[in-house]
Amino acid sequence: MIKILHYALGLPPVNTGGLAKQPENIMVRQVANGNEVSLVYPGNISIDRELKIIKNKSFNNIKVYEINNPISATLLSGEHDPKVSLKHMGFNIYTDFLKTIEVNIIHIHTLVNLDEEFISAANKMDIKIIFTAHDYFEICPKVKTIGSGVKTCTECGNGEKCVICNR
To answer: Which Gene3D superfamilies does the record cross-reference, listed alphabetically (predicted)?
Structure first.
């Protein structure tokens, strides 16, 4: 039995489409194969902005955890204040969480709202990480690759035009 933690945007019915369905299909199959599977997803932002990881109700024998007050990312309008949204939130909180659930491997399905300290904590604990991209966020923070002026972006100029688009 392998203990697998998935990082994705959430589960149906709250999240729909391929970003939710593909990780769900993988997790359900892993449970059917006798593995212990958990999901952690970026959740709500509260006024206190204190990072917390809370256990939610299980889904199809998948343990579900929510990161309250994750780093934030705007999916369609780019990032306007990276100093706030990419603020380091709590290496020790992620380390404690990973120690508690004792996973062997982490499967990351998206980089949206993923705190680099989560990855740093996993690396420090020698937890293997797999990454698969199910969206365009890794290529373009606007996800839809829509350039400034609401035109489809066809040439990013090695990222130079991304700076203009994300202002």
So the answer is: Glycogen Phosphorylase B
